[in-house]
Amino acid sequence: MDYKIDNDIKILVVGDLMLDHYIYGTCNRISPEAPVPVVEIIKETYTLGGAGNVLENLITFGCNADIIAVVGDDENASIVFDELASNNISWQGIIKDAGRCTIVKSRVMVTNHQLIRLDREVTVPLHNEKEEQVLRYLKQHIARYNIVLISDYNKGLLTPTLLNGILATCHEQNIQTVIDPKGHDFSKYKGANIIKPNKKEAVIASGINITNTESLTAACIKIQEITECDSVIITMSEDGIAMYSSGKLEIIPTKALDVIDVTGAGDTVLASLGIALASGNTLYNACNFANHAAAVVVNKVGSATATLTEVKQKFEDYSAITRKGQ
Description:
Layout: E1 10-15, E2 17-30, E3 37-50, H1 51-60, E4 64-72, H2 75-86, E5 94-97, E6 103-110, E7 113-120, H3 128-141, E8 147-151, H4 160-172, E9 176-180, E10 194-195, H5 199-206, H6 213-227, E11 231-235, E12 241-245, E13 248-252, H7 265-278, H8 283-297, H9 308-325
Helix pairs in contact: 1-7, 3-4, 5-6, 7-8, 8-9
């Protein structure tokens, strides 16, 4: 195994926190009121989603992690606090905003298949007053962390002004930043150390259609020019992970043998990169670790997490398959 993990490190997640609400049921008939299926509910569950899923991945890895996020002043915020408490995670960095609602994604699941998703959200940019509150909290606590992971779901929290303040603060403290980006304009991430879009996001941000190694390299170079970052990492589903650093492109093939659900896989990659880099691994080994962790979670239903034991087993399984094929 080409990685080491230090569980004494402390990681900060900043980003769009949401609730993943799952409604599980059975469906055996069509409604007499309209041509739609009738789902008989069996159970409902809530888990932390978005940046919260990054946080849960870190906790599952055994890492010390905190989060800075904004929720509404509503009943769903109470569920967020309950979920944080159940994972022994501090809620001190959670800021309430009466002008927003807590983001909730409700998924109706029948026999492990998603029937429909219902979203409750407010995506207007965060008000200046709340930006200042977030940044003030960050500056008060930043020194205790080894790395900062920024999870942008384009829900209004990470405004250009706030991002600029976060990245400047981390730069002053010599703390590495890794960003999972969203949107068309990556210039707002200028000053980050690592940018981690998926393939679709990379195409949108760079304006380059990625079809081969040459266009992939060109897209990475363009993103690096826009953000002035040190490295670009592009997740490419079945094509693995591409890493562009020091003028060199490397592609790590996927380790996923079976894919059931890709929900939250990007969150797992961000968390995996964070803990691996903060533990002192090279960027290549961190990407390799993240690739194996992602292979674990895509074999589960929903926004899943991976344990270090599962990742280790994935390394061993893939190595055995590789040796058998030689």
